[in-house]
Amino acid sequence: MNKSACPQKRRPFNGDAGACTIGYYLVTDGVLKMCHENGRPTGKIYRLEPGDNERVIAARLTLEAWRRTANQSDFNRTLNYEKYGVA
């Protein structure tokens, strides 16, 4: 059965709920293998060391994959300004 990790890719701010991305993985014999939702491997593997948190490692690998494929500019992002109450 696939396990999942949901790392945050955008923090919540001022009414915006933020965003996360989902990564799926399997752990067998101390090896974490990233996969698609249907269980098909993505090819990314990581040998777990004693004391490693598999969910944290999977979240890091998920964010790395998302950053590679997102290829998005933040030029048109929403600009959030603090309300200082000064006119």
Task: Describe the protein's architecture and organization.
The protein is of the alpha+beta class and 87 residues long. It has a domain at 3-7 and 20-70. The protein contains one helix and six strands. The strands form two sheets. A four-stranded antiparallel beta sheet has the order 1-4-5-6. A two-stranded antiparallel ribbon has the order 2-3. The mean pLDDT is 86.
Write the layout of secondary structure elements.
Layout: E1 3-5, E2 8-10, E3 19-20, E4 23-28, E5 31-35, E6 41-47, H1 54-70
Antiparallel strand pairs: 1-4, 2-3, 4-5, 5-6
In short:
By secondary structure, the protein is α+β, with helices and mostly antiparallel strands. Helix content is about 20%, strand content about 30%. The protein has a domain at about 5 and about 20-70.
Uncertain segments are: none
End-to-end CA span: 57 Å
Percent in helix = 10-25%
Strand composition percent: 25-35%
Rg on CA atoms, Å: 17 Å
Label the structural class.
alpha+beta
Major sheet, described briefly?
Answer: 4 strands, antiparallel
Order of helices and strands: EEEEEEH
What does the oligomeric state look like here? single chain
What is the average per-residue confidence, as pLDDT, rounded to a whole number? Answer: 86
Number of strands: 6
Strand order within the widest sheet?
1-4-5-6
Total number of helices: 1
- Which word captures the global form? elongated
